[in-house]
Here is the input.
Amino acid sequence: MKPRETPIGLLLAQTAKVVGQAFDDTLAAAGGSTSTWLVLLALMRGSHRTQRDLAAEVGVRGPTLTHHLNGMEQAGLLTRARRPDNRREHEVALTDGGRALFHRLRSAAAAHDVRLRQVFDPHELETLRALLGRMAQTVRPPASAGRGLEEA
Amino acid sequence: MKPRETPIGLLLAQTAKVVGQAFDDTLAAAGGSTSTWLVLLALMRGSHRTQRDLAAEVGVRGPTLTHHLNGMEQAGLLTRARRPDNRREHEVALTDGGRALFHRLRSAAAAHDVRLRQVFDPHELETLRALLGRMAQTVRPPASAGRGLEEA
DNA sequence: TATTGTTATACTCTATAACTATA
DNA sequence: TATAGTTATAGAGTATAACAATA
Here is the structure.
């Protein structure tokens, strides 16, 4: 009876749990959270127009984004206003406070990343990136790849 | 201006999110969930005596474990009874239904793992294991390692 | 008193369904 | 009607504080 290796999926899940928790803690200490960080990051990138785009970028559904935006707006991090040219669409704009938090969280996230990187040499880091990238694509084929799993 | 690489922490978080979601879906399709799976796994391992041990093994606090055990007991997956020798401690025992679900989820998890493994050769898999292991230890030093970060 | 576990309560993140406002 | 976003509601997972039971 060979001593079964931990399934790679379980190992990844466990790793993600502790690493993710550590990341949460880091951001919390800087006055934020992972979801706030992801929203701020997407807003700063600016590669969106509608909240739908934004939600997709953050990786959540519309109501979930609305939920986060509500909290962030109340915290004075951003404002929402209907676009004059198409009043269905809402323009989400960061306030100075929002930008300030972004920078603080970015520093915290960067410091966290430095810690993570410290145990890897550049080659390992690249290897890890590549492997994680392939793993992600394994479970989530890049959008327009066709499903072809159950439909054969 | 170099086009900043995605921080490794963020990449790991994103990967974990999609891979974890896929794993959840897999288990849900088999009639379970990740937390149920982790509890079943720990129970089958049997390397615990008290619920405290069990909670630690699963990676949650006491009340969270109680919460899950409540649901699983109601679902007929397990029973709880005070130990005669020390009535403070509760013996958690899987029912036939619990064991059946364990096997079903194990199959589902195994199938999921096969999919994940398909994109890696054995060497890559070993590399990935090693890198993930070191990453986990970076943020969560193995228990009795001493903290020595803020206390220098 | 110390240990084991539960109850009460609450928070975060997420989602679906139904709704409003606009086009 | 179709699209953008919000509201209402719910559920899963987690936690802390206070409690009960047992030793």
